[in-house]
Design a protein that fits this description.
There is one protein chain. The chain is of the alpha/beta class. Helix content is 42%, strand content 20%. It has a six-stranded parallel beta sheet with strand order 6-11-10-9-8-7. Strand 9, helix 9 and strand 10 (238-242) form a beta-alpha-beta unit. The protein is elongated and about 75 Å long.
């Protein structure tokens, strides 16, 4: 995540996280460290995985004190191993202690997503399928979580509701039919917007194709029906598979012929990657 993106999209969110952790003061730190003391602490990896969020980790300490120095020995997207020294933070010990949990929360969460994404991407090697995330993200964490997906080798679906048209079952119900929903979307949206629609059976697939959908999402369909759907679509629209896609079942999609597969599990079910700040000590 570059500095411009960080300042525009992330700084306010990081400050909200810090305010959540410190409403008035860090009582524990102030009790044992009442005055300024320069110190340093090591960032240690405790599991094998893919690292993501190092610059967010760094930014936490910079927002607390711009004089804090953060050395990073890896970059986002790198593979890391247990016991790797990822970086070192030097500054006011009060800043190191107060920012520790918030900084690690971001780094652990984002690295866990990147690691899980990389695992699923590896299962799609040799296919032409692109792995996508979804909007099933933690509130106020989307910019971090979608960035982490990219660090793991995945791609981003739409960022938010303003970013693209995706007609789901309730939109179709509101419009009255697939055909009507697509007609209304084409009439309302700019011509540069692609129209994606979610379908659940082969009759819906046929209607979506005839109505001129740009992307057809095959939602929770059987393996055989997805293959038939791809045949029906026959290149007239891009195809996406969605619905409970995880590391346990994604390999089964390799022969369906779809263009994209989206998985909410990338952001809502990835376990954290364990990292820790250790060996804090004063610097003379």
């Amino acid at each position: 995540m570059d500095n411009i993106t960080m300042k525009i999209n992330a700084d306010n969110l990081i400050m909200m996280a810090l305010r959540e952790d410190v409403t008035s003061e860090d009582i524990t730190t102030n009790s044992v460290m009442p005055e300024y003391q320069l110190g340093t602490v090591d960032l240690i990896c405790k599991q094998d995985g893919v690292i993501s969020g190092l610059n967010v980790f760094k930014r936490v300490f910079e927002l607390l004190d711009s004089d804090t120095k953060v050395e990073l020995f890896f970059k986002d997207g790198d593979s890391v191993k247990n016991k790797d020294l990822l970086g070192r933070v030097t500054g006011d010990i009060r800043v190191l202690l107060t920012g520790e949990r918030t900084a690690l929360n971001y780094l652990q969460r984002m690295s866990g997503i990147a690691t899980y994404t990389k695992k699923i991407v590896s299962m799609l090697e040799g296919t032409n399928i692109t792995l996508l995330d979804t909007r099933k993200t933690t509130p106020n964490m989307r910019v971090f979580e979608k960035y982490a997906v990219k660090c793991g080798g995945g791609s981003n679906h739409r960022y938010n509701l303003s970013d693209g048209i995706l007609l789901k079952d309730n939109h179709i119900g509101a419009a009255g039919s697939i055909t009507k929903a697509i007609e209304m979307a084409k009439s309302y949206a700019s011509f540069v917007r692609k129209i994606e629609i979610e379908v659940e059976n082969l009759d819906m697939v046929k209607e979506a194709v005839e109505a001129g959908a740009d992307i057809i999402m095959l939602d929770n369909m059987s393996h055989d029906d997805m293959k038939k759907a791809v045949e029906i679509i026959d290149g007239r629209a891009l195809t996406e598979c969605s619905g409970n896609v995880t590391a346990d079942n994604i390999a089964k999609l390799s022969d369906v012929g779809i263009d994209y597969v989206s998985s909410g599990a990338l952001t809502h079910s990835a376990p954290i990657l364990d990292v820790s700040l250790k060996n804090l000590h004063p610097v003379k």
